[in-house]
Amino acid sequence: MKISPFKPGFVVLPIVASLFPLAGVHGQDLSRPMVYSVPGMDQVDVRADVVYKREGRDEMKMDIYIPPGLAADARRPAVIFIHGGPLGKNPSPGAKDWGVYRSYGRLMAASGLVGIAFDHRYVSMSVKDLETSFADVEEAVRFARANAVAYHLDPERIALWVFSGGGPHLSIGLRGDATFIRCLVSYYAILDLSATAVRLGESPQELEKFSPAAWLNRPSEYLPPVLIGRAGLDSTDINRSVELFMSKLLTLNGDVNLLNHPLGRHGFDVYDDNEQTRDVIAATVAFLKSRLLRTGAFDSKRARAAGELQALFAVGKIEAAREFVRTALNTPGDKPIKDVLVSEPRLTSVGNSLRNSNPSAAVAAYEWAVELNPLSPSAHGGLAAGYEAAGRKDEAVAEAKKALDLLEKATGLGENWKRMIRDAATTLLERLKRP
Q: What are the structural domains, with CATH classification, of the chain?
């Protein structure tokens, strides 16, 4: 695929230039910092041009930004910035020396975290070049963790932050095999490659392993929290990919956070110097500190289980839900989920939502509620209504009478709630007495 130069040492594939409007634009000032700052950014400890990988004549380098004045044994979470592109061969200056990444590194260190900006070989979005780029990024992460003592970083508390065409590298944190990656951040980044495969001249199947959205289709033991900075004025391709990625994460009940910049352009953190941009960056720093400093990694497996259980309830698969609870929510740590989702009030509510559309499923939900709390007039009243909807009149009458009987002995119920149960049960009995 032919490449077109925009300026000396900085080239961008034509197809990619349409995806990432500010990547490689002629005359852009690569020394510009991002538009947000905090006190102390000029006082951090910078370890520049650390070689993290050698391959032939190539030396891959990183700059490491460390909070000042740390004790020898101090360890801080690290944020690794993954630059966008593709940048073609031998870009000059390398991305780690751009103003945006230098300022982000200093922001992290001034905020009490270790910041790492580095160069990776991102020539094009061909499968071959993506493999090279991914190998560099993975080695940068490995090198940082292996040298944690020297750079005061905690190897078990790492965040990956991608930008623009660097979005595919978010996949590294979505494979489920790296719980040390505590969270992910994406700014105006492409998060799905399925729509671009044809234009790139690559097989969609080959590109899947580099596509963050595709990784969300696979079962995973671990899914880190994600924050997305969306630019409202970005390209349609990018924002569609963001919407697809977000929808998949929500389906998995993931810890996903959206910071939308409605009038922000691609590269808003450099080019849109306004309060909205600064608010987005400040909120991102707060997210990073929150997720990186938590005692343990996000329990994505349990969160996903809660989402799966709710999905079973929504489509009326009550027996499947009971089996799921038995097999997938059977540890002491699952109790908070079961206390909410598998409670008598919640199951009665599920029955109410299903009664008109799926009476048999509603009955199953009500019966489960009665099993959990045999003395609940609300559960028995719901079961009476479920039996009536299912055409089981004798059983409906028996349950309505049971609800009224329990209501006389019930404590802790408000008068309004009691009146609603009594009226519903009485009306049902009157209705079923008619020929």
A: 4-297 (3.40.50.1820), 301-433 (1.25.40.10)
